[in-house]
Design brief:
Two copies of one chain form a homodimer.
Chain A: H1 16-23, E1 30-31, H2 44-62, H3 72-81, E2 94-97, H4 100-111, E3 117-121, H5 126-133, E4 138-142, E5 144-145, E6 148-149, H6 151-160, E7 164-169, H7 183-196, E8 200-203, H8 219-222, E9 228-233, E10 245-248, H9 251-265, H10 270-282, H11 285-310, E11 316-317, E12 325-329, H12 336-345, E13 348-349, E14 351-352, E15 365-369, H13 375-398
Amino acid sequence: MGFKYAKRMENIKASEIRELLKLTQRPEIISFAGGLPAPELFPVDDFRKVSDKVLAEKGRIALQYGPTEGYNPLREKIASRMTKVGVKADFNDILIISGSQQGLDFTGKIFLDKDDIVLCESPSYLGAINAFKAYQPKFIEVPTDDNGMKMNELEEIIINNDKIKFIYVIPDFQNPSGRTWSLERRKKLLELSEKYNIPIVEDNPYGELRYDGKIPPAIKGLDTKGNVIFLGTFSKIFSPGIRLGWVCASEEALNKYILVKQGADLQASTISQLQLNQYIEEYSLDEHVDKIKNIYRRRRDLMIDTMKKEFPQDVKFTIPEGGLFTWVELPEHVNTRELAKKAIDNNVAFVPGGSFYPNAGNENAFRLNYSNMDEERIVKGIKILAKVIEEALQCEKSM
Amino acid sequence: MGFKYAKRMENIKASEIRELLKLTQRPEIISFAGGLPAPELFPVDDFRKVSDKVLAEKGRIALQYGPTEGYNPLREKIASRMTKVGVKADFNDILIISGSQQGLDFTGKIFLDKDDIVLCESPSYLGAINAFKAYQPKFIEVPTDDNGMKMNELEEIIINNDKIKFIYVIPDFQNPSGRTWSLERRKKLLELSEKYNIPIVEDNPYGELRYDGKIPPAIKGLDTKGNVIFLGTFSKIFSPGIRLGWVCASEEALNKYILVKQGADLQASTISQLQLNQYIEEYSLDEHVDKIKNIYRRRRDLMIDTMKKEFPQDVKFTIPEGGLFTWVELPEHVNTRELAKKAIDNNVAFVPGGSFYPNAGNENAFRLNYSNMDEERIVKGIKILAKVIEEALQCEKSM
């Protein structure tokens, strides 16, 4: 025992969220920590019907190995669904994977040698940071504002650094900040990607969950040269428990993902693919998404309104147009890892912001999720949180 | 386009088996190529009942995120099932993964830096070779005979090489050779593992599918010091389409697998875990395995008997005591990649042996699977193959 592990293992740590989620399974905890969908919205009865039908009619296919690329009828449905975010795709452009998290891991595997550079938003999704870290890259965090990455700063960074392998972005209702990129920035990012031949990895888990205004085109939808690799998932619009997501990319890049999928786990679950395909055939996923949006919109409104009322004045937060998260910034001297402990003592959980910065620092923000708690708990939890924050601010002042 | 990919991508090629499998989907092909279970044996009706029950009673849990480690009731059942191969385990020793192929990928990720050394049997499972190759190791193939790796040669290799990170073995009904390790060799391997502190990765996808004699203890069952990492799967004893396998290892090593699972795809499918758990609770998986064994035993017997009758005398093949494969060796001058093309022209498919040697060479053997074809097709296919081989041998002689 005490084996010699690969050097990369020094970089891989338990995700703070997953560890927090364990705590938050205690029923008394009001959790704004995870990114969990509301389970009461899962289409359990409809899924039960289609599951039964698939096993009755295609049981032997459902339980057997299938092709690495995925089940073709589902690939077709995903391709045509991509028009919602402005992407014209064909089933051949789609690889079905086990949730979009797997697409992040594969992206690292395909592009990153040790010490290569990943450009990402600052802050960025901690699950992506952790997935990439296994391939020992360096991260450069690109400064962002309410419209996305700042383009002058981005170009400056590109000019001054070799070995940039890709630019990772979440343009819609970003995790953790809740912000959405403007159309202008999307176009400019694509322009820079083409100018410097650096692929864009567009992670879009929440794009369809827009509560106000119109869905802007995905960057992939503006892409005419195959520079964008798009990651999608059914986790937030259908169910995370079935573990189905997809990669949409042009042939050359997609072939790399297919090869890597083969070595990593051969294929996504055949039975889950057949069942989801059957669901989309028999029911309206659009209507289901509308149902989710109506509930989440109210939860977002309630959380934002309660924060406006209850939070001290020098606390800032984003007002997301969709997705699952809002991002709270406290005065710089407040450490939210400490604050999280006090909040948990008061039965409220959130994720401290520090983990969303790959190069550390920025300990004064935190992420709140509003999709998983009912309205009563949202109000109660935010009120408790307001008190915890107030105490922390006063405590700092009195010191 | 024409992105800069990671160097590892130069090593990752499409698995010959998966490419062959595409061809073999043509209904006229008699395929001995894949490692597919017989679909007519899948317990479709029983699984249909438990699936429905899970969605009726635990639908919201089944469709939600779950813990990375896996669903505890299923982890418990797997742990207690490990006694079948002589392993005493606790649910805490089990991580549920998406098929044991994922365990191979994780093993590479956890242990291998570039140019580290993997020891494996010669030949070895090509899916493992491909999974490890993504982490840029070197392979040393350890000579094997009918009882497993040759221990003097193994120790010699260990003494003469630094950077050996693990020893990868498939001790039961090895893929591709169909051979099974003797108890003596298992003990000796463990002894060397402890002496030189090199972990053993024991891949055991077929261990329960023994048609003659008694199941010997897994090497993990002899392991008192946590030196063995055991990979298991439900693909061959239940269904590959649900993509569920497991890692059984001691705490230190298992924690690495859990961390890597988190970054790779968060968790195995919640719904599949609940359904399989329910199946094991309500039905007898043992009885199901017995049913499979009875059919596969007859298919093996029939394939072996037909080969004895039909194959030319200078063709050798193994007689497996279980599992899915037999291994056919032709005179050294015969190239089985060429032979495979001729066989496909005659509507019979197999996997040429060359791919099972990570350092290439040895093109004169091939692997036959007997689990996926019915008895009539087995006899017909072997007869065709006998003719194709005969022609190849005569052709060589006449040249």
